[in-house]
Design a protein that fits this description.
195 residues, alpha+beta, Immunoglobulin-like, 2 domains, 7-stranded mixed β-sheet, 4-stranded mixed β-sheet, 3 helices, 26% helix
Amino acid sequence: MVNKRMAYGTRKILIYGVIGILAATILSSSIMMLPNLFVNVNAGTGTLVVKVTDAPVPDLLNLYLTISSVEVLDSTGGWIPLPVSGGTNTFDLLKLENVAMDLAIGKIPVGDYSKIRLKIDTASATLSDESKIDVNVPPGHIDLQVKFEIKEDETTGLIVDIIVDRVQIAERGKSGEPANLNPQFKLIVMPPPPP
C-alpha cells in the first residue's frame, strides 16, 4: 500500500515537473522574442516629401495625369504607402516648368529605400492641333529606382523630373496609333540639412 502511494506520488511529481519545465521553456522563449516584436513600434520616423516637375514638350499642349498612390520600397522588400495630396491628384504635367508640385507627403519608418512607385490611373494629352488622345500607362504604374535614407525626425525631399517621350505621345497620337506614357526620369534627392 505504501509502495503504491509512493509510486503515485512519484508519478505526480514527475508530471508536474515536466509541465513546469515546458512552461518555463515557453515563457523564456517568449521573453527572448519580445524585443523583436516591438522593434517597429519603437522605431523612429522621418518625413518624405515627393514632388513632381517637368518641362514643355514640342507638339503637346497638355499632358494630364491622375495619380492615386505613391509607395516606396524599404530594405525588407515591403511597400510603404504615402498619402497623395487630395487623395487622388490630377494635374497637367506640362504646366510644371520650373515648378515642383507636392505630390505626396508622409511619415515613414527610418531606414534605407530603393524604389518609388507612382500608380497612374489615367493619362491623356492635348496635341498641338488641339485634338485630345488617351495615353496608355502599362502596367498602370511606373517604378523608379532611387536610393535615399530617412532619418529620425528629419525631412527628406525627392523631386521626380518626368521627361516625356514626345515620339511616343505626339507623333503616335497624330498617326492614330496607341500612345504610351514612356517617359525618362531624373530623380533628385534632397537629404535633410546637416545638424
